[in-house]
UniProtKB/TrEMBL annotation:
Pfam families: TsaE. GO terms for cellular component: cytoplasm. This is tRNA threonylcarbamoyladenosine biosynthesis protein TsaE. Gene3D superfamilies: P-loop containing nucleotide triphosphate hydrolases (3.40.50.300). The lineage of its organism: Bacteria, Pseudomonadati, Pseudomonadota, Alphaproteobacteria, Sphingomonadales. NCBIfam families: T6A_YjeE. GO terms for biological process: tRNA threonylcarbamoyladenosine modification.
């Protein structure tokens, strides 16, 4: 899939919001500036968040709860995580049962983490577009077909 501009990244996030539910994990990979946070912002806005969602780069985990969003969401940015063991302190495995996890920089974790996650990878092109590749697990197959 090719995302031509910011509006298409936000629209993809909006579409994901219509398909996601608590217990899901959506990972967003790609270099700095690839558009990961833009997709997350579109998703959060579609779930009811008013105003622009801040990047969780420094907080690492930015929680959103009703009535701010339709259901609980944890927007996670693992960019500053150097050792995968550090993520155990965040309690993400426990939190995901009641919340949607949107995880930027999932490559900071072992490959075995969240095998059931919808894995989205963005690659910027010189013309400003983004190429999106998806690894779609069984739990997402039927939902992904509507995108």
């Amino acid at each position: 899939m090719i995302l031509r501009d910011l509006s298409e990244s936000l629209a993809l996030g909006e579409t994901l919001a219509s398909l996601a539910r608590p217990g899901d994990v959506i990972t967003l990979s790609g270099p700095l500036g690839a558009g990961k946070t833009s997709i997350a912002r579109g998703l959060l806005a579609a779930l009811g968040l008013e105003g622009e969602a801040p990047s969780p780069s420094y907080a690492i985990v930015q929680p959103y709860d009703p009535p701010e969003t339709r259901f609980p969401v944890l927007h996670v940015d693992l960019y500053r995580i150097e050792d995968p063991g550090e993520t155990e302190e965040l309690g993400l495995d426990d939190a995901r049962h009641d919340a949607l996890l949107i995880v930027e920089w999932p490559e900071r974790l072992p490959d075995s983490a969240w095998r059931d996650a919808l894995q989205l990878s963005l690659t910027p092109s010189p013309d400003g577009t983004r190429s999106l590749t998806a690894k779609v697990p069984e739990a997402w197959r039927a939902r992904w077909q509507s995108i």
